[in-house]
Amino acid sequence: MNAYFATRYAKVKNLPFILKGNSAERKLRLTILISGISSILAGLYMASLNFSIGEHLISLFYCMTTILGIYISAAAFWNNINRHIYIITHSLLISIILLCLFDNNHDFAKHSEYNYLVALTIGGALVLRQQSWYLKQVFPLICLLAYLFFVSTGTIWQDGRFQTDMAHVSGFYIANCSVPVVALLLTVFTARGNYSETDLIKRELSLAIERNQLQLYYQPQLDSHKALIGFEALLRWKHPAKGFISPEVFIPIAEKSGLIIEIGRWVMEQTLRQIAEWERLHHLGDIAFSINISPLQLMHRDFTQDTLLTLSQAKIRPERIKFEITETTFIYDQDRIAEVMQHFSGLGIKWAIDDFGVGYSSLKSISDFAVDDIKIDKSLIMQVFKNESASLVVQKTIELSREMGLNVLAEGIENEEYFEYLKNMGCHLFQGFHFSRPLPAADALTWIKKQRL
Questions:
Q1: Which of 269, 335, 258 is nearest to 306 (CA)?
Q2: How far is CA 256 from CA 250, 344, 390, in A?
Q3: Is the pTM of this model over 0.70?
Q4: DSSP per-residue letters across 241-299
Q5: Block mean pLDDT (10 aa), the chain, length 453
Q6: 143 close to 124: Cβ distance less than 8 angstroms
Q7: Residues with Cβ < 8 Å from 219, sequence gap 6 or more?
């Protein structure tokens, strides 16, 4: 017998894991199932009770709520659960309101019926947080207002008209009903909120573009003769209260939240617009501009179309553009990546692997893609005088890359010693604070003008 109950208990305990979806969706489905079962149990009991005292019409109403409970319970296991959410939530609300208005044969228990509205208010606030703004904000408020209305007025439909049962000291009564329930609802919203610094940055970052807080800086790239050969466009976020927020802080958040798609599109448009302006006012010669492309941006279905449209509108020669991707890009759909890279290479746009040496790929895997440049990560460059293994890795990377016909750029050049050492290794492209920090557009233009002299 104990084994029998243990088996049944295990099945009930593991019920959430047989429901479909991720953790949040399973919680939603389980809550819907609980609501459905509760509606069935309450409906059956009240239907039988009202039938026994001769209230057949009210008994029929409770039979309908039982049927509604069966539908709700079944919906917890169906596909496209979000399609049923609006029907379920509003059916429950309407049923409870009708119950409060028309079931007037149990005066001793009348106020207990209002508890269903409290449950719907708090339950909606807790489990609908992943749904639309209406369901997660407005619907719980509607339920709360319905509760406050009934509990403070006692409104019922009887003898063909609405009747109320207001307390003698209505203000005191309303306050004692509304204050604790509102406080409970606010507690729910507070408990379910995320007030971490990461969440705050994500919310503010989503508004940074329209508030003109994002800026582009340009860091010069030089050859072995210290002649300017290009710029890398670098994103900066100047927060009105926090000042400049490091890209190492907000870029990972943008990638995780998906905001990087919109931000990447903005960077592309602004960079090409700036290049077009400089080209019109100042001859740029062979200066190239590198634009960082995140893996999510590259894999997005609209990337190719949007980029081609932006290039066309800016009237930029593709040969002037270089897209930089990180090694982690290659953990995604490699066939899709190769197709996109090959398409743009055919137009004349070059591809560079940024931060090479600290990520996923190898020189062999890069040989399978349309890569033109290798940018050795600055963490390796900074170790060439301190770590013999790092120096050997840098040297072999330069040698093998050049044998494969790839250009090699060393990032993070901090002083002349690094420059001379790497130049003697065979590296011929450089970038770092020794030459210049990232520059606002006006200062980058000064570099361009110097190049023309």
A1: 269
A2: 10, 26, 31
A3: no
A4: TTEEEPHHHHHHHHHHHTTHHHHHHHHHHHHHHHHHHHHHHS--TT-EEEEE--HHHHH
A5: 60 67 80 89 90 88 93 89 89 90 69 80 81 87 87 83 71 64 70 65 84 93 93 93 87 88 94 92 86 92 92 90 88 85 93 80 69 90 89 90 90 94 93 94 90 64
A6: yes
A7: 231, 232, 234, 431, 436, 437, 438, 439
